[in-house]
């Protein structure tokens, strides 16, 4: 899963990254393909060294972890992060990437489906 970040500002790139982490942790199942995509995304965000990517991933996971304890908190975070994407093209790109991240392990849980539904309504896709 490759994504062009050139149309995203630095804050949008961070929000996109955090949405994907939320998507990755939503089902409690961490797949290798998800981690590999996040590593590539971080590299395209300018974190070239493995220790830099790990540091950024750890910091984002630490920040997001409390929000994955309840669907209400996860929904609130997802919608807050989604606010940063203002063009239809950005919104479609972000939604498609989140959807692919959630489906990458072969199934979408009810919890993931509810988050996707909220993003679909938010982005009107």
The amount of helix comes to: 55-70%
What is the number of helical segments per DSSP (H or I, 4+ residues)? 6
Strand content: under 5%
The secondary structure category is mainly alpha
C-alpha end-to-end distance: 20 Å
Radius of gyration based on Cα positions: 13 Å
Q: Count the E strands.
A: 0
Unreliable segments of 5+ consecutive residues: none
Order of helices and strands: HHHHHH
**Most strands sheet:** none
Mean pLDDT value = 89
Instruction: Supply the number of structural domains.
Output: 1
Principal-axes shape call: globular
Overview of this structure, please?
This protein has helices at residues 10-25, 32-44, 50-64, 71-82, 88-103, 110-123. With 125 residues, the protein is an all-alpha fold. Helix 1 (10-25) packs antiparallel against helix 4 (71-82). The radius of gyration is 13 Å and the shape is globular. The model has no long low-confidence stretch (mean pLDDT 89).
In short:
With 125 residues, this protein is mainly alpha-helical.
Key structural traits:
125 residues, mainly alpha
Give the secondary structure arrangement, pairings included:
Layout: H1 10-25, H2 32-44, H3 50-64, H4 71-82, H5 88-103, H6 110-123
Helix pairs in contact: 1-2, 1-3, 1-4, 1-5, 2-3, 4-6, 5-6
């Amino acid at each position: 899963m490759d994504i062009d970040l050139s149309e995203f500002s630095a804050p949008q790139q961070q929000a996109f990254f955090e949405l994907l982490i939320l998507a990755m942790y939503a089902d409690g199942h961490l797949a290798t393909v998800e981690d590999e995509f996040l590593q590539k995304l971080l590299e395209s965000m300018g974190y070239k060294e493995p220790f830099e990517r790990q540091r950024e991933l750890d910091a984002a996971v630490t920040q997001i972890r409390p929000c994955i304890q309840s669907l209400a908190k996860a929904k609130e975070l997802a919608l807050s992060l989604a606010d940063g994407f203002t063009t239809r093209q950005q919104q479609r790109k972000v939604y498609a990437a989140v959807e692919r991240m959630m489906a990458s392990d072969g199934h979408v849980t009810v919890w993931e489906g509810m988050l996707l539904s909220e993003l679909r309504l938010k982005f009107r896709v």
